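User: Please predict the structure of the protein below. I'd like the answer in structure-token form so I can feed it into my own downstream comparison script.

Assistant: Understood. Taking the following sequence of 252 residues as input:
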Amino acid sequence: MKTYRESLLQFALDAGQLMMESGAETYRVEELIDRICLSVELERVDSFVTPTGIFVSIQQKDESFSLTRRVRQRGIDLHRIEEINSLSREFATGEMSVEDARLRLKEIASLLPFSKHVRYANIALFGAAFALLYKGGLQDALSSAVLSVFLYAFLQSNWLQSTNYFFRPLFGATATAMGAQWLSALFVHMNRDIIIIATIMQLVPGVAITNAIRDSISGDLISGVTRGSEAVFVAIAIALGAGIGLFITGGF
């Protein structure tokens, strides 16, 4: 049967893993784990977090417990991060049991994103807005909106979801460039380059770049370099994919 400290450590790891999978910074996850573990009287808490793994050790008198957790998925869900932060602060007040906290964490993990129609509407507006920002015309904005929706649906396909972080933007950028080339061939007044740039903006790893800078500033150099390298590889994949798509459709 698990002791209280073992249950506490499991809860801290579950919360930390969900934070990392939702796109939180490394230092934020370490603060979360320390806050949860220090809510009880412990002599020492050591947490070490990287983008791919979490290592936590707690010590009280002659007893010590250590656990590790592998982080295999990464995404972006700022609402989930905020909910987990609020849960940890509420738990730290001592007014919530570990069992209740773990149940709340399961509820947070099962929170559904916005409906499909809302997401498609937002991604269409996203593509159109960037096309106008880059001084495109109305036709460019409409084409970017339509192509952005198709790109988002393409990225959500099951077979593409199972690939790694390099091939998803590679295939996405290839499909985008091909679609933009075909649209510009059908409607001569469209600006192909603006459509491509506006559409592939949803592939740009903006959060990864931001987190890499924030982790580096906070002294988490391993995480900073890791996230920065990931962002560079994604950028290379986007550029390579766009070039492949234009080459296939004769855009060069």
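That's the full token string. The two ends are 66 Å apart (CA to CA).
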